[in-house]
Structure formats: C-alpha cells, structure tokens
Design a protein that fits this description.
This protein has about 290 residues and is an alpha+beta fold. The protein folds into three domains: about 90 residues, 2-Layer Sandwich (Ribosomal Protein S5, domain 2); about 40 residues, no CATH class; about 140 residues, Butyryl-CoA Dehydrogenase, subunit A, domain 3 (Up-down Bundle), CATH 1.20.140. The chain is about 60% helix and about 15% strand. The strands form two sheets. Strands 1-2-4-3 form a four-stranded mixed β-sheet, covered by helices on one side. Helix 4 packs antiparallel against helix 6. It is rod-shaped and about 140 Å long.
Length: about 290
C-alpha cells in the first residue's frame, strides 16, 4: 500500500492539568524534512522527538506543533515568594519607625504587590514522556491519513496504467496493417515510375522501411514498465523514487514511439500516451 506525502493530523490529551495539543501537516518533498514548534519546557526534547518521527516516516516536509495550555477546569499552581514577603514586611516596619506610624501592612496589600504570588513555572514531572506518547498517537493518525490519500493515488495511477495498456494494445494491433500499407505504397511508387524493380532490392527497401517504423520494442518496454508499476503499488514500503524513475522511462519510450510513427492514428496514440504519463508524473510527486 503506497502512502501519500500529503496529510494532516491532530491529537489532544490532558496531562497534569495541562492540555497538550499536537498538530502535524505534511507535504511532498524529496527527502524527510522536519520542523518542530515546541513549548519552552520541551525544547531540549526536540532531538528525541525527531528520532521518533524518523522511525515512522520516510519522506515529506512535515511541520509539527505542540501547544501546552492549562486545562479549563484546572486551577493554576501558585507559589508564595516568602523572601519578598519578609522583605516587604521589614520595610513596612522600618517606615513605621521613621514616621512614627506603626500601622504595618495588611495581608491584602501584600498580595497585591507584584511578585508576591507567582504561578509555578516548573514543568510537571513526566512531561517529556507524555509529549512523546502524544507524538506517537499523532504519527499513527498522520500515517493513517497519508495511507488513505495513498489509496486514492494508487487508484488514479492504476486507471492510467489501464489506459496505457489499452493504447499500446491498439497500436500493436494496427502495426501489421500499417506494414502492409507501407509495402503497397512502395510498390505503387515503383509502378508509377514504369521500371522493372529488382525483387531482392525491393525486399531490402521494405525491410529497411519496416525497421524504421517498427515499434514492437517500445511497446514491449511500455507494457513491462506498466506491469512493474502495478507491482510496486502493492508493496508495503516507500516507493516514490522508484515510481518516479519508471515514469521517466515511460516518457522516454513514448517519445521514441512518437518519433517512429508513420501513421496519424499511431501519432495520436503517442500523444495520448504522453498526456497519461504526465498525469501519472504529477501524482507520483506526492508518493512517499
């Protein structure tokens, strides 16, 4: 089963009061190119996370984004800055002595002072493991999405293979009549000249003409390449580069077939072949 390099996946789960949301977007690329956007608390885990992705994906430009926000029903973890409270209290007493007003400072006033109460910034224990587990689930969803798109691509490529088989079979069926017609036209030209042609020489000219218009080898190679593509589409491995090579070979044979054509119908079929091959090339660019 082939995979597309195009896909999107999202995974969300709660951990220790934090909502971890992974997103992945993948497009076609010659190699595997990864780009991470991570919370500050997980920047040091990028290498480990990248290694997990490399185990699951072969090609594609993949953007991965992890957002971490406090869950809606979770109260923030607050900490008291005790040294600051003591310092403020001492300063309040010092001011009271200097002014002769021993009113002190109230708890409410202390709580309003910037920095007295702080939200805990330390990441919760086990955050890295939770991020890795979430990434694994995200990758499973992304691979599934790429496989679904791969099925669609395989269907398109198979239909184009069917069309190429039909065209090559039609050309092969026309070749005997085409060779016979060439022989008749050659004999007609000789007859119009009003000379007696050497039969041996005539046969040589016919053989030379037949070799120039013979496309049997090109048709055989086209059919062989199409059979190889069908086989590749059933493999459980990245096959994009191999398919790309075979598309180039198909195009080469179609060009040769067109250059040898001595018949409008064969020429028309050669053009249609190139159209089909170009359509396949566009689809293959997205195959992993």
């Amino acid at each position: 089963m082939i995979r597309s390099m195009t896909g999107y996946a999202r995974h969300e789960e709660e951990f220790a009061g934090e909502l971890l949301t992974w997103e992945a977007r993948s497009v076609n690329h010659r190699f595997l190119e990864l780009s991470f956007r991570l919370p500050e608390a997980l920047r040091g885990e990028e290498a480990a996370l990248k290694a997990r992705v490399q185990q699951r994906l072969g090609r594609g430009k993949v953007d991965l984004n992890l957002r971490m926000v406090r869950a809606a029903d979770t109260a923030p973890a607050l900490e008291l800055n005790a040294p600051l409270v003591l310092r403020l209290h001492a300063l309040a007493n010092q001011i009271g002595k200097l002014t002769g007003q021993q009113q002190g400072v109230s708890v409410r006033e202390l709580l309003r002072w910037p920095g007295v109460v702080e939200e805990r910034s330390d990441p919760p224990a086990g955050l890295a493991a939770a991020a890795q587990a979430g990434l694994d689930r995200l990758l499973t969803a992304l691979v599934d999405a790429r496989e679904r798109e791969g099925k669609r691509l395989a269907s398109v490529l198979t239909s184009r293979c069917d069309a190429i088989d039909t065209l090559t079979a039609g050309i092969a069926a026309r070749m005997p009549a085409l060779r016979t017609g060439q022989l008749e036209r050659l004999r007609e030209r000789v007859a119009r000249l009003g000379v007696d042609a050497d039969e041996g020489r005539l046969e040589q000219e016919l053989a030379l003409l037949a070799s120039r218009i013979d496309v049997a080898e090109e048709l055989d190679r086209l059919q062989a390449h199409v059979a190889e593509i069908r086989d590749i589409l059933a493999r459980e491995e990245p096959v994009g580069r191999r398919l790309d090579f075979l598309i180039q070979e198909l195009n080469r044979e179609a060009n040769t077939l067109g250059s040898k054509s001595a018949d409008t119908e064969v020429t028309r079929a050669a053009v249609e072949l190139k159209v089909l091959i170009e359509q396949m090339r566009e689809q293959v660019q997205n195959v992993e």
